[in-house]
Write a structure and sequence with these properties.
This protein is α+β, with helices and mostly antiparallel strands. The chain has helices at about 55-65, 75-80, 90-95, 180-220, 230-239, and strands at about 15, 20-25, 30-35, 35-40, 45-50, 65-70, 100, 110, 115-125, 130-145, 160-165, 170, 220-225, 230. The chain has 2 domains: about 15-170, Pnp Oxidase, Chain A (Roll), CATH 2.30.110.10; about 180-239. Helix content is about 30%, strand content about 30%. It is elongated and about 105 Å long. The two termini are about 60 Å apart. The structure holds flavin mononucleotide.
Length: about 240
């Protein structure tokens, strides 16, 4: 099938729609952001791109801090709401009945209802055009303990996270596979092939033994009366 070509645009989906909390414990705000992601592993760095016209923009620029709060099905309404209302008119924490949680390294509150909150410190601001990109270092990650099992493993599938894709919010219902599964599958296929080869060799060995046993039986089963071996008789019979 041919593909339709469109003019340049923003079409890398799915992406997260996060709730970015900013300000401090008294004057705080939440802005929904979809232009966000990881940009470096070590040191852990991420970005958010914000239009300078947003109320949150100055809060983030002035403090140099923000918190990325991941969103799930339960937070979908608040995510959408915080993405259409401005903090200059409403108190988003209050209106959405969200709880402020004290962070460890930044003054901004975390959203308690979010399954994962990420404390970020701005390192650089890139004025790209419509949006200014805040490049930030991750200072700490806070994961809701109800998703952590007794061995300390975090089960992200239980968080019920949502994604944003071309104007819609989506759930991530089913895990397809784990990272590196194609490698494991190749190894498994290789292993299966090896097993089949071993089985074949064993079968050949067994067949060889059966053949030898048959020859021995023929040699020792000479029938005195008919002056031929039983097997000759058998061969005559089946021909
Ligand atoms: C799903 C979604 C994603 C959004 N992503 C961004 C974004 O990446 N950057 C941005 O500046 N605004 C984004 N917005 C718009 C802001 O969240 C919105 O203008 C908000 O009202 C700004 O709040 P504030 O004025 O309190 O800062 C998004 C809105 C929605 C609903």
């Amino acid at each position: 099938m041919p593909k339709t070509m469109w003019k340049p645009g923003t079409f890398i989906y799915p992406i997260p729609a996060v709730m970015v909390s900013c300000g401090d414990m008294e004057i705080s705000n939440i802005i929904t952001v979809a232009w966000t992601g990881i940009i470096n592993t070590n040191p852990a760095m991420c970005y958010i791109s914000v239009r300078p016209t947003r109320y949150s923009y100055e809060l983030i620029k002035n403090s140099g801090e923000f918190v990325i709060n991941l969103t799930n099905r339960k937070l979908a309404f608040a995510t959408d709401w915080c993405g259409v209302k401005s903090g200059k008119d409403v108190d988003k924490f209050k209106q959405m009945h969200l709880t402020k949680q004290t962070a460890n390294f930044v003054k901004c509150p975390m959203i308690e209802e979010s399954p994962v909150s990420i404390e970020c410190k701005v390192k650089e601001i890139k004025e790209l055009g419509s949006h200014h990109m805040f490049l930030a270092e991750v200072l700490a990650i806070h994961a809701d303990e109800k998703y952590i099992d007794e061995k300390g493993a975090f089960d992200i599938s239980k968080c019920d996270l949502i994604a944003y894709s071309n104007g819609g919010y989506y759930t991530l219902d089913k895990k397809l596979e784990s990272l590196g599964f194609q490698y494991r599958r190749k190894k498994q296929i290789k292993g299966n092939k090896k097993m089949r080869k071993i089985k074949r060799l064993n079968n050949n060995k067994e067949n060889g033994i059966t053949l030898i046993a048959l020859i021995i039986t023929i040699l020792f089963s000479y029938d005195e009366k008919s002056k031929c071996s039983n097997s000759e008789g058998f061969l005559l019979y089946i021909i």
